[in-house]
Amino acid sequence: MSEARARLLNAATELFYAEGLHAVGVDRVIAHAQVTRATLYRHFPSKDDLLVAYLTQADEAFRARVDEARAAERSSADAVRTVGRTITGDIQNSGFRGCAFLNAAAEYPDPSHPVHLAVLAHRQWFLDTMTELFSGIGKIDPEPAARHFVMLRDGAMTAGCLTDPQPICETFLRGLEGLLTFRSREKSGS
């Protein structure tokens, strides 16, 4: 990645996450990145392209963190716990403004818009990944467990920027532990 492209993406990430996708125009990104308009459009032909690149970068960063959790843990259950702790760590970070993907979906509700499609792709990957992890811990119904995990995460990410994040994180992690034990094969006698 060129230095100018990296500066543009870093500026876009900072501004879009802090202020919103519609609220930040390309002129602000150009000024913040200290590049010319021609440089912006050479790397990103439209604002939509810049928005999708911002979300793609966020997606890649989160995928890497999930991959690290999977590689570091001996069991799928521990990997799920580590992913959960990663999420609660994000929620407790200074400047936390919720989930970049949920925020983007709220601003771009048209299901055919490239931004919305990028959000859906990220969410499908996350659901598929969590389904795979829950499959590895002996769940009878890994897909519903994964959907439940994603729903708990969505709620925690939303509530975590509205109020004190500590009880939100504690509640999320308690819910995660419930998912790890609820209807396991060992408890159901199968």
Tell me what the structure shows.
The chain has 190 residues and is mainly α. It has 2 domains: 1-45, Orthogonal Bundle (Arc Repressor Mutant, subunit A), CATH 1.10.10.60; 47-181, Tetracycline Repressor, domain 2. The chain contains 10 helices and no strands. It has helices at 3-19, 26-33, 37-43, 47-72, 76-91, 100-107, 114-135, 142-159, 165-181, 185-188. Helix 1 (3-19) packs across helix 2 (26-33). The protein is elongated. The mean pLDDT is 93. GO terms for molecular function: DNA binding. InterPro entries: Homeodomain-like_sf, HTH_TetR, Tet_transcr_reg_TetR-rel_C_sf. It comes from Saccharopolyspora karakumensis.
Question: Any descriptors?
Answer:
Tetracycline Repressor, domain 2, 0% strand, 190 residues, 75% helix, mainly alpha
Over all CA atoms, what is the radius of gyration? 19 Å
Q: Distance N terminus to C terminus?
A: 52 Å
> How many discrete domains?
2
Main beta sheet = none
The appropriate CATH architecture of the largest domain is Orthogonal Bundle
Order of helices and strands: HHHHHHHHHH
CATH level-four homologous superfamily name of the largest domain: Tetracycline Repressor, domain 2
> How many β-strand runs?
0
Rounded mean pLDDT is 93
Count helical runs.
10
- Counting helices, strands and paired strands, the structural category is mainly alpha
Poorly predicted ranges (pLDDT <50, ≥5 residues)?
none
- What is the name of the CATH class of the largest domain? Mainly Alpha
